[in-house]
Amino acid sequence: xxxxxxxxxxxxxxxxxxxxxxxxxxxxxxxxxxxxxxxxxxxxxxxxxxxxxxxxxxxxxxxxxxxxxxxxxxxxxxxxxxxxxxxxxxxxxxxxxxxxxxxxxxxxxxxxxxxxxxxxxxxxxxxxxxxxxxxxxxxxxxxxxxxxxxxxxxxxxxxxxxxxxxxxxxxxxxxxxxxxxxxxxxxxxxxxxxxxxxxxxxxxxxxxxxxxxxxxxxxxxxxxxxxxxxxxxxxxxxxxxxxxxxxxxxxxxxxxxxxxxxxxxxxxxxxxxxxxxxxxxxxxxxxxxxxxxxxxxxxxxxxxxxxxxxxxxxxxxxxxxxxxxxxxxxxxxxxxxxxxxxxxxxxxxxxxxxxxxxxxxxxxxxxxxxxxxxxxxxxxxxxxxxxxxxxxxxxxxxxxxxxxxxxxxxxxxxxxxxxxxxxxxxxxxxxxxxxxxxxxxxxxxxxxxxxxxxxxxxxxxxxxxxxxxxxxxxxxxxxxxxxxxxxxxxxxxxxxxxxxxxxxxxxxxxxxxxxxxxxxxxxxxxxxxxxxxxxxxxxxxxxxxxxxxxxxxxxxxxxxxxxxxxxxxxxxxxxxxxxxxxxxxxxxxxxxxxxxxxxxxxxxxxxxxxxxxxxxxxxxxxxxxxxxxxxxxxxxxxxxxxxxxxxxxxxxxxxxxxxxxxxxxxxxxxxxxxxxxxxxxxxxxxxxxxxxxxxxxxxxxxxxxxxxxxxxxxxxxxxxxxxxx
Length: 725
What we know:
Blueprint: H1 9-24, H2 40-50, H3 53-59, E1 62-64, E2 67-68, E3 81-83, E4 92-93, E5 96-99, H4 113-118, H5 122-138, E6 143-145, H6 168-183, E7 188-194, E8 207-209, H7 212-219, H8 221-228, E9 234-237, E10 241-242, E11 245-246, H9 251-261, E12 267-269, H10 278-283, H11 307-314, H12 321-336, H13 351-364, E13 366-370, E14 384-388, H14 413-421, E15 426-430, H15 439-454, E16 458-464, H16 487-497, E17 501-506, E18 521-524, H17 532-541, H18 562-565, E19 575-577, H19 586-591, E20 609-611, E21 615-616, E22 620-621, E23 627-635, E24 641-651, E25 662-671, E26 676-683, E27 690-692, E28 697-699, E29 703-712, E30 715-724
Parallel strand pairs: 3-6, 6-7, 7-9, 8-10, 8-19, 9-12, 14-15, 14-16, 16-17, 17-18, 22-30
Antiparallel strand pairs: 1-2, 4-5, 10-11, 13-18, 20-23, 21-23, 23-26, 24-25, 24-29, 27-28, 29-30
Helix pairs in contact: 2-12, 5-6, 5-13, 6-8, 14-17, 15-16
């Protein structure tokens, strides 16, 4: 890199402004690359033709940890991604993921993406993306490094809270809606991590072995939908290897599938430090390199796609064809984002954004259990409520790795409960346990909580996981399926002294519940963001009628998970083989005829929904075009509520083994008490198909199919048959 380009931020900004003024020539006709009236592709080609070889090289690698080069001479700005799909990460120093320490980067903390998925509502996905991208615009970020769509193969995956569950169809629909919301504001979404990055253990170099059918049926659909339905502008490669080659420059994943099969025209960016070889990066599809080791400002020159690439060109060992394609893709993304004339203004940590975060969380909280209608709480009958659990007073937005958010504020569960009950009910808080003390100290805390519970009208336990090492967070997986800090023993003791017990559980994935039959009320609250405490309280007292459904299966134990039963996780340190194949989550549970703790798609309401008989407009046909399945759903309860109607497909007989059923459609409907709605689903060939590895394509075989419609994967209310002739 030429010395004159080693500039401070102030000099960079000044040079960009100066070069822009020069290019405009004080009112002269704009060159094509700056003319917003011209088509993007024409502008891209004009800009490319004006760039020097050195400027092209700069455009495809970072110049700070969260910034990549523009072309100052041409007035083309830098790219500024923000790390984290759940809200803006704090500003970082130029050379390390260390907080800059400024005061103006506080923002809205949005619910974890697993909570978004639990809404089963694409409208919430679009709201999430729109709201978050407005904050990105305010901070001059033209790329959001999310959503994460890696399938939850094991409950122990530390980053499950950043992903959207275990089912490829649900994940696809929610990811597309999120992307549409983000990119509608001319900010690039970056779907990640491509591909088969389903564990944090040994993530940097584990070789993931997945058969072709499993890859296409389980682990690729969400990425495919992001590209072909969401038109996502950036994809991030994964750290791991797939079939022996690193994912950030994997020939099969990037060239054969992403570029050729899916016709992707956007940018493929490396995960931070995920690039390992210059020639593989050149020829195997990588466009933009981030995060390779840094020890000085000159380190950026030594990235695999920096000086080493330039030297290969100058020596004649490689040409510029691949470089020009990379530059085209980066420029195309920039013309869609920070160089778009239609880019709107943004806003940061506004009351409107807090309301958005609250709406999403309210729809994502799942009522798992409600024996004897212990919920919603009848405040008029309560005098003393004891709240127990460290998570009642723990902020959850500020940890977990790259998804950390510097929230302007975060309402704690205890504060939310006090806000809603405090004036009428005595609220007593007892920690019950601590993540930061010795075991004997926890024993004392447990005894104090149990004694207080004996005298309470109601006990609300707020526990689960947190984002400390070996729990929910980047760079580590959980060590155990059990709750940490002896919470199981504490819950058992609370239940023994007070039957009026509700457990509010905060986590990003499933966990063991040996106490499930002793606790009448269980609420899965996830990580709910800025308004989390108020959201939890609103569900507990019934201001909000819960409508979330599980996007993951809660198995009784790890013995009910295929990856663990088959000793196919976490691998031997060098490789991990997905021996369970297509049988992930509820697919494995149903194949083995196992009763889950709580099933995929499960979630209760404070009202009741009755399903009528499903009908299909045609019983048999040669083509599925125009095929519609309809079911009447009635709210037979006493209050308004929302139901998620789920349609699963069962192939009665096929040439290859298939799951018992697979989610293929869903619809969230809100009904007043007594109201009936006819819910209709359009069925296409894709809904009936499986991937044939011998033919290397999707196949819908003639034969009988059943459409199973219900409230959860284990709660099918009605079914109807169809024959493809």
